[in-house]
Write a structure and sequence with these properties.
Blueprint lengths: L11 E6 L3 E13 L2 E5 L2 E2 H8 L10 H8 L4 E5 L2 E5 L12 E2 L9 E6 L2 H17 L8 E7 H23 L4 E6 L2 E2 L8 E2 L3 E6 L1
Parallel strand pairs: 9-10
Antiparallel strand pairs: 1-13, 2-3, 2-8, 3-4, 3-7, 5-6, 5-8, 9-13, 11-12
Helix pairs in contact: 3-4
């Protein structure tokens, strides 16, 4: 494990964006345990979620098809700061009809079906960069640190990752930037929840 702490008297800005759009009505988590959701609106979570997405029949039972299809359809969790997303493509329980979201999803939470594509993910890259810079106020940015998700990398592919870098460079506008792909991102601008999936997090330094 490697850890680093950055301290400064100068302003720092955080930008968070994912590009996934909510679909249909919100659902209530009616039974969960840690990261596993058993029921949504008192129905088996896997089936309720897939119906909300109008998923094809093979996704209901085939792990390979489920993972492929769900990479662009994460679970949205309502927070004070907006809708955060959880990558549930890797941990379905087809026998018990539950879904797993990587981090705790509490009973009573409002959740959404979401969707997106490489274009919406790339648009979110620019939003996250600009939000981070804007949070510096009048301070001049001197660098950006970017943390993008491996889940987004899988959606973008090799060419898309190249364009992701180009979008960051565009918003950086000549200042240095560096970053890497992660397995989950931790960042918050308000509230206590800060774990994200399939999201770009940007730290702007001044």
């Amino acid at each position: 494990m490697v850890a680093a702490m950055i301290g400064s008297v100068a302003p720092m800005g955080i930008g968070i964006s994912h590009g996934w759009r909510t679909l249909g009505e919100a659902m209530v988590v009616t039974r969960s345990d840690q990261a596993r959701v058993y029921t949504l609106d008192r129905e088996p979570a896997l089936d309720k979620f897939l119906r909300q997405l109008d998923a094809p029949a093979e996704v209901y039972q085939d792990p390979v098809e489920f993972r492929r299809w769900m990479l662009t359809r994460p679970l949205g969790v309502q927070r004070r700061s907006g809708v955060a997303v959880k990558n549930i493509s890797h941990d379905p329980d087809f026998e018990g009809r539950s879904i797993g979201g990587g981090s705790e999803i509490v009973q009573g939470a409002l959740v959404w079906a979401t969707e997106g594509d490489s274009a919406s993910v790339l648009d979110a890259v620019e939003v996250a960069c600009q939000d981070a810079i804007d949070r510096l106020g009048d301070a001049e940015p001197i660098g950006l640190l970017t943390l993008s998700c491996m889940g987004c990398k899988a959606v973008l592919g090799t060419e898309g990752v190249g364009e992701e870098t180009e979008r960051i460079a565009k918003r950086a506008d000549g200042i240095p930037f560096a970053g890497f792909h992660t397995l989950g991102e931790i960042a918050r601008t308000r509230g206590v929840e800060g774990f994200h999936n399939q999201t770009l997090v940007v730290l702007a330094l001044s």
